[in-house]
Each structure stands twice: as structure tokens, then as C-alpha cells.
Amino acid sequence: MKLIITTLSIFCISIVSVKAQKGSNLTKILPAYYDIKNALVASDAKTSSLKATEFVQILKSIDSKELSESDSKVFIPLQEKLNSDAKSISENTNIETQRDHFATLSLSIYTLLKAVKISEQTVYQEYCPMKKMYWLSNEPAIKNPYYGKMMLTCGKVTDTVK
């Protein structure tokens, strides 16, 4: 009897663990996005391209059938746009072109973030008044990905998502 109870317990824990792992892919999106942002802050087009390739791979690994119905309704319409922008960043070596695609990638991530819990951490939406573009950050300190070192601290926090 103990063996049956122990076996059933392990089985149930395994199922919960597998479901948690599959559903956790959405939480990998934001750290991958931050990697792209940090490469753009450093004006490093090569690293930005590599990080965008990793971002695309994370998107491919997300099985929308494993998401809750409400998460799926938000994610699926954004998935192609996220993929398209990240792919454009990955395929370009021109930092300005990468930054242009990063702007629309940022808006899509923000839309996802507002509707789906993809982070346990506070996320800051920040704005560059010179480019009139937004980005997301895991800290309130401004590190502008649109100008990099030229105007590193140009911008302001416009929203905080907890």
C-alpha cells in the first residue's frame, strides 16, 4: 500500500513539474529581450544579432497549446510580430536597423507584459524623447538602447509594471 501511495505521489508531482516547465517558456521571453536591449545599449550589433536569434528560438519553443486560454489569446496574435522583429534584428548587422525593429519589438513585449504575467520582477517602461520610442528595463535607471553611449541616460520612466 505504501508503494502505491508513494508511486502515485511521485507521478502527480512529475505531472505538475512538467506542466510548470512547459508553461514557463513565456517567462523566458523577458530576460531574452533584456539581452537584446543590453547589446543595443552597448552598441554591439553582433551580440544584438546573436541575442535576437536566441529570442527567436525561445519563441519557437513555446507551445501555445500548453498556455492557459487567456494567455494564449494574448500571446498568439503577438507571436508572429515578436518573431518578425526579432528575426529582423538577428539578420541585420546595421545597428540603426536593429534599433528600429527593437522599437516595435518593445511595444509588442509591453502589450504581452500588461496582459500576461511573464515576470515576477518589476518592469519599467522607459521612453526616449529624441527618438520618440519606448523600451523595457528591469531597473529604473535609464540606459538608452536607441543611442547607446552617445546619449546613455537620455529618457524617462513612463510606466511601472509590478
Name the strands of the widest sheet in spatial order.
2-1-3
What is the number of E strands? 3
**How many structural units, i.e. domains?**
1
What is the overall silhouette?
A: globular
Class of secondary structure makeup: mainly alpha
Poorly predicted regions are 5-23
Nearest-angstrom radius of gyration? Answer: 18 Å
Mean pLDDT: 89
Sheet-strand content, in percent, reads 5-15%
Main β sheet profile:
3 strands, antiparallel
**SSE pattern:** HHHHHEEE
Distance between the termini: 47 Å
Report the CATH architecture: Up-down Bundle
CATH structural fold name: Four Helix Bundle (Hemerythrin (Met), subunit A)
Number of helices, counting only DSSP H or I runs of 4 residues or more: 5
Class, according to the CATH hierarchy?
A: Mainly Alpha
Written description of the protein model:
This protein has 162 residues and is mainly α. It has one domain (25-161): Four Helix Bundle (Hemerythrin (Met), subunit A), CATH 1.20.120. The protein contains 5 helices and 3 strands. It has helices at 2-23, 29-41, 45-61, 69-91, 95-115, and strands at 123-128, 133-137, 156-161. The chain has a 3-stranded antiparallel beta sheet with strand order 2-1-3, covered by helices on one side.
